[in-house]
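Kindly review this record before class:
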Amino acid sequence: MSAGFIRAAAGGVTLAVRAQPGAKKTAIVGVYGEGPAAQLKIQVHAPPIEGRANDALIRFLAESFDLPPRSVELISGTSSRSKVFLLRGVTVGQAEVMVAAQR
């Protein structure tokens, strides 16, 4: 059974993320919430100014999933801590393995 923050989507998966900008380093630090409302909690080194934290999250997810940055798209939550990313070319199984390895 997959984590509530990973969902199958056309061409890949969506990943629900709870961002914590302005941290000492960018890293996955846990899960925020429970069940279908759960979000992957990621601390982001970049500040939430002029989209820098969003850009840093895209780079971090691309590196974590071994994807080119163009395969990671922010589809909701541009100005919110709660965000949803589309990861193209990734299966639910691959996403679960990567997240488990990073936690």
In short: The radius of gyration is 12 Å. DSSP finds two helices and six strands in the chain. The helical segments are 52-64, 92-102.
